[in-house]
Write a structure and sequence with these properties.
Blueprint lengths: L3 E8 L16 H22 L4 E7 L3 H9 L5 E5 L5 H13 L5 E5 L8 H10 L5 E5 L5 E7 L4 H4 L10 H11 L4 E3 L9 H6 L7
Parallel strand pairs: 1-2, 1-4, 2-3, 5-7
Antiparallel strand pairs: 4-6, 5-6
């Protein structure tokens, strides 16, 4: 079994359920289409990663029929499981723990709204986990798109009192890591797509 795993952490791209902050600049259908394109891009690049890592999708759906249809469309190299209920941090830490419990030492989790993310970046994060306890991929809005761990418990840094979806998320997480004497490394800063202005900046990556 591969000792490394990559988790794509995403909502099912249903209109009115995903990327709602793109509205009212875009319709709910247009917003969901952008999410679908970004997620499909990650699914595609994960095929190359599957040569050295096991690929998981931790999903959250709203409409059962649409969720089942989406899951049925996924390629066979991706293993799927639902996200738990609770805060974003709790959902992420439980997803990582679930994969760690299967025996994976290096576990990398990313969101699905980072269209500039590449195979090389994820491979670089996995390599960095050879010398670090945690790897973080910062976003320009003060959050992060990637959390990777090499055997350590992610819960103290994820399932904790952090104001998620604010500009202080990365700073608060780094402080927790420093206070816990965890060795960590930051990856290149990328843009996550939350608003229409973000989508415009990465338009070349979300054509479809």
């Amino acid at each position: 079994m591969n000792k490394s795993a990559y988790i794509i952490f995403s909502k099912v791209p249903e209109p009115g359920y995903v990327k709602t902050r793109l509205e009212p600049d875009l319709t709910a259908i247009e917003a969901a289409r952008i999410q679908s394109i970004m997620l499909a891009r990650l699914v595609s690049l994960s095929q190359k990663l599957a040569k050295t890592m096991t690929i998981f999708l931790a999903y959250q759906g709203h409409d059962l029929t649409q969720t089942q249809s989406f899951l049925a469309s996924l390629p066979d190299w991706i293993q799927v499981f639902p996200q738990d209920e609770g805060t974003l941090g709790l959902k992420m830490s439980h997803a990582i723990q679930r994969v760690q419990d299967q025996g994976y030492q290096k576990v990398i989790l990313t969101g699905s709204d980072i269209p500039q993310l590449t195979v090389a970046m994820i491979e670089s994060a996995a390599q960095a986990l050879g010398q670090n306890d945690v790897v973080l991929g910062p976003t320009f809005d003060g959050g992060y798109y990637l959390f990777g761990t090499s055997g350590c418990d992610a819960a103290p840094f994820l399932n904790t009192d952090i104001s998620w979806s604010t500009a202080s998320v990365l700073e608060a997480t780094v402080q927790l890591l420093q206070e816990s004497n965890q060795q960590f490394q930051l990856m290149p800063t990328l843009l996550d797509v939350d608003f229409k202005a973000d989508a415009d900046q990465v338009a070349e990556f979300i054509k479809g």
